[in-house]
Automatic annotation (TrEMBL):
<keyword id="KW-0067">ATP-binding</keyword>
<feature type="domain" description="Protein kinase">
    <location>
        <begin position="519"/>
        <end position="805"/>
    </location>
</feature>
<comment type="similarity">
    <text>Belongs to the protein kinase superfamily. Ser/Thr protein kinase family.</text>
</comment>
<keyword id="KW-1015">Disulfide bond</keyword>
<keyword id="KW-0675">Receptor</keyword>
<dbReference type="InterPro" id="IPR024171">
    <property type="entry name" value="SRK-like_kinase"/>
</dbReference>
<keyword id="KW-0723">Serine/threonine-protein kinase</keyword>
<protein>
    <recommendedName>
        <fullName>Receptor-like serine/threonine-protein kinase</fullName>
        <ecNumber>2.7.11.1</ecNumber>
    </recommendedName>
</protein>
<dbReference type="GO" id="GO:0016020">
    <property type="term" value="C:membrane"/>
</dbReference>
<keyword id="KW-0418">Kinase</keyword>
<dbReference type="InterPro" id="IPR000719">
    <property type="entry name" value="Prot_kinase_dom"/>
</dbReference>
<feature type="signal peptide">
    <location>
        <begin position="1"/>
        <end position="32"/>
    </location>
</feature>
<keyword id="KW-0430">Lectin</keyword>
<dbReference type="InterPro" id="IPR017441">
    <property type="entry name" value="Protein_kinase_ATP_BS"/>
</dbReference>
<keyword id="KW-0325">Glycoprotein</keyword>
<keyword id="KW-1133">Transmembrane helix</keyword>
<keyword id="KW-0808">Transferase</keyword>
Length: 811
């Protein structure tokens, strides 16, 4: 339904309004306005693009869809691409498709839901009868009496925006929106108080009561009216008309530019202009809303708010800095991340476990201070010391579990407590913030530090995987894969296969390509039971190092197993698993090409000297656990690694653990019985069920992980025959004894970091003991292990793993 009512759909300049005076026998308002009349009975429906436009079409009144099935009854700039909203009726109560606004027969303007018969909003005309409504070219929507006296104006009930010709009298207020995308009421208010002061307040969000002012015109007793005049100047005037305070004066003309002043969600009142056309007078102005930076109030929101309530211009634990556009930017200090990256005003959280107060003196060693110049949280003091040195200040904060940040400036030391509020970065500040962070960040979610792109690649030949259950589905996929593979041989030299998962592309190499890549298999990286591994570089990128694994003859015969492994590993994608880049299956040659991990394997770092510190070892523990959890439960085909040991855990430059070498794993075909399977795995890490007639499940990896975990805790091999004390020869055995006797400390006796983190050491030992239970069903899944390590799940007291020792002896 088209709603604009064309009773007098032509422009009525003021000069000719006398004519209408005669026709209507009523005086017109003395403004340079033109009219289109909306008479009782007319309505608009949310869903269509219907609106009531001003005569020039520059403004429209109607519904704007702001979210899925959420409409605002609003007034907006109608001739520019972005339909900038300047007023709305229901910012905290969006209406739905089908809801209506209607000028009722009795003269009330009502926003309502027909189905529920519910009224959502109405223009308050104090019961007087409205003769017509009109959207004016000024952006004012009015309800007028028969004698054209305005009973209600949108200009008198502003939302967050003022327009030229609009005045702002005592008691009026603007309330900021919640965010740039969400127009519901937010955290700031701009008001002309009855005492004559023009004031910006923070609000006690989500309530609308005010906290403290953060800007004031200081015109108490004098301020009377804020005027946004036709020339685009904004100023406060006294009752006698004298200008008291100029708010904005350097604006371009209103004939060439649209103007608006808005209290934005960040608490700043800004005057924006937008060129009306691309050509005249608009040279140099891009077609968008540009703020007049000289007129921002307050000029620096970051430093303006100083109140004990609330968080400041940005959320708790964050800090505010002015960007080059003079707009505030909220950031998290080092060691902290946003609670909600989509709503940075919600503040930041610590990314680490905070200091334990019970053992404050002990945990001191586990924290360090990160320095940040010119940053302060001036209102979060817990203590203040003067005439001290920076060194003293640092020590004082580190040894105080309540101290989250220390500020040091000119011999003064302020300790700050959580939550930090009113954070700001201000180049004129001159001090420095010392932010306390846990040394090794063990927050599980924080493992995604930027990866070093320089990781090289290894080509490994001839690994075999154990796939515990081969579903029919998988066989079909395998079949399809083999077909592609065979088809590929004769046709092209380079074949990019898409095995099964979209997004995973393995490269098929020719043998001569790999000969070239490895300079004729010159540099050997290692050899195992079934294969030899060589270092190589790929032709397309000399810096991409790869490990090329050449399968031994014996294994080469296992055509199907080879292909199954290629397929299964090729589909894995996890930061804690080595990446398979490609393969070669040409004649009798079977080779696999892997990413080369530079730093070597865990065995070198664990049993060598100097050994890895406790924090790196914990990080590696998490990495291996997550990688195994992925293999067991998260990748499309369940994979049992079968040979978890330190030699097969590679480390990259940042000591991230990367599980490699699926070399002795085996594909278990449906018809394959265990009789054909020799014991796989490495002495000391092999689960007891290999020696018994029990099915091999993912729990064999859990067992090996348990042994690895003990080795990681203690930095020694599980089996050390040269140890004098016989009770300590087998670590698994000794560890349980220590745990049973409450002497876990003996296991990490010379490791200072670990000794200081004893609670965690005990927990890890308990988890390890659970993992090495002889009965596979007692061992936790890798998922549970991960949750226990991370502290999400409690660790109960483990039973004696009992006869595991016998199985090791029988090996
Ligand atoms: C409303 O207008 C917009 C832009 O002019 C257009 O894309 C949309 O299809 C219209 N919707 C309806 C329901 O007419
Ligand atoms: C806008 O923000 C308010 C306050 O957080 C919230 O209650 C409301 O759901 C948000 N509205 C939309 C449309 O996101
Ligand atoms: C107008 O009012 C202001 C403040 O109330 C006062 O300072 C000023 O002198 C007055 N001007 C005139 C012309 O009365
Ligand atoms: C608007 O205000 C400025 C500053 O007081 C003044 O110079 C200008 O003439 C005013 N414009 C109109 C149209 O009143
Ligand atoms: C990769 O390593 C080279 C040499 O070691 C270095 O120059 C380059 O910046 C590194 N690239 C990346 C992305 O780390």
């Amino acid at each position: 339904m088209k709603v604009v009512f064309h009773v007098m759909a032509f422009l009525v300049p003021y000069s000719s309004s006398l004519l209408f005076l005669v026709i209507l026998a009523q005086p017109f308002p003395a403004t340079a306005e033109s009219y289109k009349y909306i008479t009782p009975g007319l309505s608009l429906t949310a869903s269509s693009n219907d609106s009531w436009q001003s005569p020039s079409g520059e403004f429209a009144f109607g519904f704007q869809q702001v979210v899925d099935d959420g409409f605002l009854l609003a007034i907006w700039f109608n001739k520019i691409p972005e339909k900038t909203i300047v007023w709305s009726a229901n910012r905290n109560n969006l209406v739905q498709r089908g809801d209506k606004v209607k000028l009722m027969e009795d003269g009330q303007l009502v926003l309502y839901n027909d189905r529920k018969g519910k009224q959502i909003w109405r223009a308050d005309t104090a019961g007087s009868r409205v003769a017509y409504a009109a959207m004016l070219d000024s952006g004012n929507f009015v309800l007028a009496r028969h004698d054209s006296v305005n009973l209600w104006e949108s200009f008198r009930e502003p939302t967050d925006t003022l327009l030229p010709t609009q005045t702002f009298s005592q008691g009026s207020k603007l309330v900021a929106g919640y965010s740039s995308m969400n127009s519901s009421t937010g955290r700031y208010q701009f008001t002309l108080q009855s005492d004559g002061n023009l004031v910006l307040y923070t609000l006690a969000f989500p309530l609308d009561s005010v906290n403290s002012p953060y800007w004031s015109s200081e015109t108490e007793g004098n301020g009377f009216l804020l005027r946004f005049n036709q020339s685009g100047n904004i100023y406060l005037e006294a009752k006698n008309g004298t200008m008291l305070v100029m708010i904005s004066s350097d604006a371009p003309t209103t004939s060439d530019f649209y103007h608006r002043a808005i209290l934005e969600y960040d608490g700043v009142l800004r005057h924006y202009v937008y060129p009306k056309s691309m050509n005249p007078g608009a040279a140099g102005w891009p077609l968008r809303w540009s703020p007049l930076t000289s007129s921002f109030i307050p000029p620096n929101i970051c430093t303006s708010i100083r109140e004990n309530n609330g968080c400041g211009a940005c959320g708790f634990n964050s800090y505010c800095s002015l960007g080059h556009d003079q707009k505030p930017k909220c950031s998290c200090p080092p060691g902290y991340t946003f609670l909600d990256p989509n709503d940075v005003m919600k503040g930041c959280k610590q990314n680490f476990v905070s200091q334990n107060c019970e053992e404050a003196s002990q945990e001191t060693e586990l924290f360090y201070l990160e320095q940040k110049e010119n940053t302060d949280w001036p209102l979060s003091d817990s203590e203040h010391f003067s005439i001290v040195t920076e060194e003293w200040c640092r020590k004082a904060c580190l040894s105080d579990c309540f101290c989250a940040v220390a500020i040091f400036r000119d011999g003064n030391c302020w300790k700050k407590k959580i939550p930090l509020s009113n954070g700001r970065f201000d180049p004129r500040d001159g001090g420095k913030a010392l932010i306390k962070i846990r040394k090794d960040n063990l927050n599980p979610a924080d493992d995604d530090v930027p990866k070093n792109k320089n990781r090289s690649t290894i080509i490994i030949i001839g690994s075999l995987l154990v796939i515990s259950s081969v579903s029919l589905n998988f066989l079909f996929i395998l079949r399809a894969f083999l077909d592609v593979l065979q088809f590929g041989y004769g046709k092209t030299k380079k074949l990019y296969l898409e095995p099964t998962d979209p997004g995973v592309t393995l490269r098929s190499f020719t043998f001569s390509e790999l000969e070239k890549a490895t300079s004729n298999f010159k540099e050997e990286l290692g050899s195992g039971a079934f294969a030899t591994v060589y270092k190589g570089t790929l032709d397309f990128d000399e810096r991409t190092f790869v490990a090329v694994k050449n399968l031994d003859k014996m294994v080469r015969d296992c055509e199907k197993e080879f292909k199954a492994e290629v397929n299964a590993i090729g589909r894995t994608n996890h930061k804690n698993l080595v990446k398979l880049l490609g393969f070669c299956n040409e004649g009798e040659h079977r080779l696999l090409v892997y990413e080369l991990i530079r730093n070597g394997n865990l065995a070198n770092f664990l049993f060598g000297n100097p050994r890895l510190n406790w924090f790196k070892r914990m990080r590696i523990t998490f990495g291996v656990a997550r990688g195994l959890f992925y293999l067991h439960e998260e990748c499309s085909t369940q994979i049992i690694h079968c040979d978890i040991k330190p030699q097969n855990i590679l480390l990259d430059e940042s000591f991230r653990a990367i599980i490699s070498d699926f070399g002795i794993a085996k594909l278990l075909k449906a018809d394959q019985t265990r009789t054909s399977t020799a014991i796989r795995g490495t002495k000391g890490y092999v689960a007891p069920e290999w020696f018994k007639n029990l099915p091999v499940t993912v729990k064999v990896d859990v067992y090996s992980f348990g042994i690895l975990l003990l080795e990681l805790i203690c930095c020694r091999k599980n089996f050390e025959p040269q140890v004098k004390d016989e009770d300590q020869m087998v670590l698994a055995y000794w560890a349980y004894d220590c745990y049973r006797d409450g002497k876990v400390g003996l296991l990490v006796a010379n490791d200072e970091d670990a000794v200081l983190d004893m609670k965690r050491v005990v927990k890890f030992v308990m988890i390890a003991i659970w993992c090495i239970q002889e009965d596979p069903s007692l061992r936790p899944t890798m998922k549970k292990v991960t949750l226990m390590l991370e502290g999400t799940v409690e660790v109960s007291a483990p039973p004696d793993p009992s006869s595991f020792i016998s199985s090791i002896e029988s090996f």
